[in-house]
Amino acid sequence: MATVSRALRGLPNVAPITRAKVQLEAERLSYRPDPHASRLAAGRTHSVGMAVPELGRWYFSQVVAGARDTLYSHGYDLLLFGVGNGEERRRFVRQWGVLGKRVDGLLLVDLRLDTDELVDVHSAGLHLVSVGDSYDNLPSVTVDNRRAAAIAVRHLVSLGHRLIALIGEDDHQRHFSVPQFRRCGWLDALAEAGIAPHPELEVPGNFTVAGGYCAMTQLLACTPPPTAVFAMSDEMAMGAIKAVRDHGLDVPGDVSVVGFDDHDLAHIMDLTTVRQPVIDSGARAATLLIEAIGGHPGAPHDIRPTELIVRASTGPRRTVTE
Amino acid sequence: MATVSRALRGLPNVAPITRAKVQLEAERLSYRPDPHASRLAAGRTHSVGMAVPELGRWYFSQVVAGARDTLYSHGYDLLLFGVGNGEERRRFVRQWGVLGKRVDGLLLVDLRLDTDELVDVHSAGLHLVSVGDSYDNLPSVTVDNRRAAAIAVRHLVSLGHRLIALIGEDDHQRHFSVPQFRRCGWLDALAEAGIAPHPELEVPGNFTVAGGYCAMTQLLACTPPPTAVFAMSDEMAMGAIKAVRDHGLDVPGDVSVVGFDDHDLAHIMDLTTVRQPVIDSGARAATLLIEAIGGHPGAPHDIRPTELIVRASTGPRRTVTE
DNA sequence: CTGAAAGCGCTTACAG
DNA sequence: CTGAAAGCGCTTACAG
Lengths: 322, 322
Prior knowledge:
- 2 copies of one chain form a homodimer.
- In chain A, helix 7 links the parallel strand 3 and strand 4.
- In chain A, the strands form 2 sheets. The first copy, chain A, has a 6-stranded parallel beta sheet, with helices on both faces.
- By secondary structure, chain A is α/β, with parallel strands linked by helices.
- Chain A contains 12 helices and 12 strands.
- Chain A has 3 domains: 2-33, no CATH class; 45-143 and 278-304, 3-Layer(aba) Sandwich (Rossmann fold), CATH 3.40.50; 145-277, Rossmann fold.
- Strand 2 of chain A pairs antiparallel with strand 2 of chain B, so a sheet runs across the interface.
- Chain A binds a DNA duplex through residues 1-3, 5-6, 9, 13-15, 18, 33-43, 101.
């Protein structure tokens, strides 16, 4: 029994011949160790959890895809948890005691934890890696959202725009900090250009296509309406473009639009956007987590590069006879 | 010990007072039963697996999202498996012995199984539900792909088109049958209209935006080029539209394009498409699986409705002086 | 290098 | 209605 266990797991102190015999017989019976029994005895589950706010959004689906591929190639199974709304999030946080027994580590995607929640999760013996958000004492994979957003907005400023709107998220959404960083970047670029931010030009878009559409509709009703918009995601940006066109206006003639992500379809829509390496970030986070589980420290904060991709959805401010 | 177990799981034969005391104390200690230990003793894992070809594709991400929500609300955890390429698929199929111990049931998304693979999976004691593909002896959630595709192509025929191309998948991809049904629908509609299918007008698009772009580029090089295209997914259709425009041609003026799915962005791109209830199918499949695990038979084959959504990417064939 | 023993944390008959 | 006992299938010291 014990020898079989050692032989199959490649542990030392097994005679080569014995090991070969065991492997052969195991193969013949297509024997597989029961993962629950081995976790119970050994403590390792060989699976990791991933907490994702919303699977339906492009960004999250890509991060999951990237992480899954890496986890797969290292033999880890992936357990998926939703933490989108407050109730899910609460339930997820409350079950950390169990989670420590279910998975060897946890990938948190855009999930902002309080200090005491962090303490709980550590006491559950979980290895953690954060994607999107960064924490002092946790390995993380992020981009510099504030700087990237500022670059996008500066691009609009350089085209002569002064009325630059922001399509973002409700500030009630305290659970996520990424939108707040992007908002800061927007403010930074406006401040540099000596532009006072107008509260009317800041509208939530819920990070969906439909939300972006509604937000833009609302913005077009302003007097005067903005001549440029920075949307915090490509999906919202695409919704915004549609709204502009449905109002009989032109992109970028009447309104310039910048997004964030470089969605698969951004190129198709000729959308100017901030490209971030999404799949890659998921993969990188998975690698960091696997290293942490394996007992290797690893670089704590990995800040990935972003790049402004200028396409045809942005153009110079139309000179109006004022 | 035994009483605590019964009390916490709501089993009968526990005095109300005892149960209350147990619950109170469990709460105080924030005790959670170890899921591995209980699976080992009881056999139930309270988690289900989901086999998905590719997470990055819109369709799959939505199906997963729909299933996850339902599973969550019934207290099941979701284990995600990739079966995209041949190697992953083989590995997945080979581990069925273990899978039966890891999960209570399995959701197969667009995964075509051979007869002997089906036998194996049944002998592993797994409950199965299929999404996309249908099997005689398995509950499934599908749409009538053949009929839906035929309706899309008939729409093109009714607009006067005769040279109607198909952007689909390599026929080497034997693992999936959905593309083949859609191809049959294309053939059906052509046959009804007395149009002979031209092999040159059938091009693989790999179900990606970039693949659709390449496919369309290839089609535009035909002499004569098609005046209409049916793409098996909206992502390919959108890539195709972009290719048409990059060649200085107009949609639908020069080429009409129909997609399949009703992607979030199809509306934005004014894409005519076949709508299918994607999230809902995922949710429905999860429900069927939960019922199967619970020992309730449930309706075996659930064929969900589709609907042709006509937008501005299709129009009458331009009358050329021939 | 090998195998007998104890134990991981539960659940399920079974006796009381 | 309650609790002692056996067992789920492994792994890890520990003797040999």
